[in-house]
Write a structure and sequence with these properties.
heterodimer, A: 0% strand, globular, B: 74% helix
């Protein structure tokens, strides 16, 4: 069982595993793997703490009710799966700044967190605009050969590659 | 009484399955390095192709099994709707966030489990704010901008009006050749 405690596996083994995992989510739960809807539901739950039941009347939260569902639990499971994987391999580390970032933009955690929040706002906003993220469209949608998902996934990478090149080759 | 427990069970069981599937997904993402900013930015800077290797091998494995089970009548597809306004515009903005944050909505929760604090205190907060902002503007976009150039839930075999395997087999071959080319280029 030493393979379980290895720091990393071949990306092909990981992809093969995710592919097989998707067979079982379709078969047992009748659902594709996805993550961004859970964030939308959570944002509604947080708004409900402040504004109460009337949040449920908002058009978006009528369609995506602010409740804990299968996908929400899936997202929670990802935290624990990654935690266990990194703990047993010794790869768990409490870290504010990724080394690639630090090498170009320095070690100020405040700057990194502000940029991460801004990036997150774009990401959350547009994942719901496109109706899915790198898992929902990028893996689950493309493997079903859905046109919307292939178009979305290709655009994720076009936008991502251009932006990354600007950040590291122009600004950095 | 018995019926009540059955009813309760049927509500809880799917959630437990979700948690279990998520656990495996997170475990795999961490083992693949997809929970790391450096790996994701390495992909977007075209220096490290780990992310595409994971995604494309998942797509090949997944589509063969999914369409096989569909042919047997065991499962149904769950295709998402899309349009030019929704998928192209949404997708390109997603790309900006993807590169600025260095995680995506799935890998960021994995990054939190991996201990990365910029993911927990930066990215997760930002994504929640972003989805909340989208819920605010959604009534103005729904049925309007999000419908421009609509292609609905159509799949590639439906578009080409062919048997699904006519798409799956060549696509799998193209992906495998692409991955072999990536390997031979040392990326």
């Amino acid at each position: 069982m030493s393979w379980l405690t290895e720091v990393s596996w071949s990306p092909y083994a990981v992809g093969f595993g995710i592919g097989i995992l998707s067979w079982f989510t379709f078969l047992i739960s009748k659902k594709p793997i996805g993550c961004s809807t859970a964030f939308a539901r959570t944002s509604g739950m947080i708004e409900m703490i402040f504004r109460g039941k009337k949040v449920e009347n908002k058009l978006y939260y009528q369609e995506f009710r602010p409740v804990v569902d299968w996908e929400w639990m899936l997202v929670l499971g990802v935290v624990f799966g990654s935690l266990v994987s990194s703990l047993i391999s010794g790869d768990f580390v409490l870290e504010w700044i990724p080394s690639l970032w630090a090498g170009v933009f320095g070690v100020n955690p405040f700057l990194r967190v502000i940029v991460a929040i801004i990036g997150g706002i774009f990401l959350g906003f547009s994942a719901r605009w496109a109706g899915g993220c790198t898992s929902g469209h990028g893996i689950s949608g493309t493997l079903q050969l859905t046109i919307s998902s292939w178009v979305s996934a290709i655009c994720f990478f076009i936008g991502g590659i251009i932006t990354a090149m600007i950040i590291y080759n122009v600004l950095g | 009484m018995e019926q009540q427990t059955i009813k309760k069970k049927s509500k809880v069981a799917p959630l437990i399955w979700g948690l279990l599937f998520g656990f495996i997904f997170g475990f795999l993402l961490q083992k693949g390095g997809a929970t790391k900013y450096n790996i994701i930015l390495g992909q977007l800077l075209l220096k490290d192709f780990t992310v595409l290797k994971i995604m494309l091998s998942a797509v090949v494995t997944g589509m063969i099994g999914i369409y096989f089970m569909k042919a047997l009548g065991w499962i149904e597809l769950h295709p998402k709707t899309g349009s030019v306004g929704k998928s192209v515009v949404g997708g390109l903005i997603f790309g900006i966030g993807f590169a600025v944050l260095g995680y995506c909505p799935g890998t960021i929760v994995g990054a939190v489990g991996n201990g990365y604090l910029d993911a927990l205190f930066g990215g997760v907060v930002g994504i929640l704010l972003g989805t909340w902002l989208f819920a605010l503007v959604y009534p103005k976009l729904k049925g309007k901008f999000l419908k421009i150039g609509n292609f609905g839930t159509m799949t590639l075999p439906e578009l080409l009006k062919v048997n699904a395997w006519i798409v799956i087999v060549p696509l799998a071959i193209i992906i495998i050749l692409f991955l072999r080319w990536i390997e031979s280029a040392g990326l």
